[in-house]
Amino acid sequence: xxxxxxxxxxxxxxxxxxxxxxxxxxxxxxxxxxxxxxxxxxxxxxxxxxxxxxxxxxxxxxxxxxxxxxxxxxxxxxxxxxxxxxxxxxxxxxxxxxxxxxxxxxxxxxxxxxxxxxxxxxxxxxxxxxxxxxxxxxxxxxxxxxxxxxxxxxxxxxxxxxxxxxxxxxxxxxxxxxxxxxxxxxxxxxxxxxxxxxxxxxxxxxxxxxxxxxxxxxxxxxxxxxxxxxxxxxxxxxxxxxxxxxxxxxxxxxxxxxxxxxxxxxxxxxxxxxxxxxxxxxxxxxxxxxxxxxxxxxxxxxxxxxxxxxxxxxxxxxxxxxxxxxxxxxxxxxxxxxxxxxxxxxxxxxxxxxxxxxxxxxxxxxxxxxxxxxxxxxxxxxxxxxxxxxxxxxxxxxxxxxxxxxxxxxxxxxxxxxxxxxxxxxxxxxxxxxxxxxxxxxxxxxxxxxxxxxxxxxxx
Length: 460
Fold this sequence. Notes:
Elements: H1 9-19, H2 27-46, H3 51-59, E1 66-68, E2 73-75, H4 77-89, H5 105-119, H6 123-143, H7 147-150, H8 155-171, H9 176-186, H10 203-223, H11 239-243, H12 253-256, H13 280-289, E3 299-306, H14 311-314, H15 318-322, H16 327-330, H17 334-344, H18 354-357, H19 360-366, E4 369-373, E5 385-391, E6 396-401, H20 414-427, H21 432-443
Parallel strand pairs: 3-4
Antiparallel strand pairs: 1-2, 3-5, 5-6
Helix pairs in contact: 1-9, 2-4, 2-5, 2-20, 4-5, 4-10, 5-6, 5-8, 5-10, 6-8, 8-9, 8-10, 9-10, 13-17, 17-19
């Protein structure tokens, strides 16, 4: 992409967005994002009965024409984006981007659904907004890998706000200046600290929804003529100087280089398990090794080899991780995830419940699992897993998962993604005929004249 040195990064990205045509979107990107839409909508419905969703619906009561997935209700675009986005990410079962993990679908799908339904936008324009916002989120994640997390912020919360802003700007008719201003405005709305890690509380769940809602607000505020800072990305007080660890030098070229020819959003990963991204390979290890264990009482201890950068989120404090205080906290406990992999052979929504957490046999095994730092671990460039099971008779069992299953090196098939979609809708109690109607809607979503058909699905 040709760049003008007198323009900012936000302006250059906005120029690309403004000039992008539907025909310029590669089929590979289109197909990946259709899968992301399917996965995200299934997850919206699966969380319908969760207390954090019920509390948000009770708190955010405002009339509107945007569907709350799973509830047969409509609300304002701002509130729909918040609630639906929180539902997608609520159980940490949503898509992720390898490198610096960000959750794109949880932000972009609810953001664009709200904009499309509120403004009566076609499925084709919905796709464009989804594409440009997803691409920006992924590219921002590459600028300074791990730096935002290390500073104490949630990358999805920070980068997601920019993605939803540019995506919505692109479909409500903002010009280049208004798009750039919207990005500048949303920089002052972006937020999300990771203190939820201390006790497994629900604020992380809220982050993508809040980012989606802020995109709606910033795009519309900019359209009215309000001006935001052009240098929101690279400025002295811009995003990376504010939200990222300064010891990791940002490479801003990732944001605009090869726009239109290199598509990062095609590399989005679909999670097979309902827990933190970096725990996933260790579950695969556990499942690989479980058939070699006839009785878990034979296990003396289990040691995982891990990347140093994962320890503060998924391994420490070790006593809490070995006995999680909440089902949500268990999703960010590799010891717990390894234990359910060995005992249950799976790690879906039913593995992270209050009743499962109270299983004494499971928690006994979890307490035997610890870690050691592997200096050769490729994190964050690659997510792998290695575990050793030490049996009381002296036998040692080993298992390895070389990369993230569901990621760019080992993607899930469309059949596997649909099975996950259907399982999540079954978990929510959606009737079989309504699941079929919803799957047909998703299959044709980019061809629809408008997305109001979504309100015709009976989720109750």
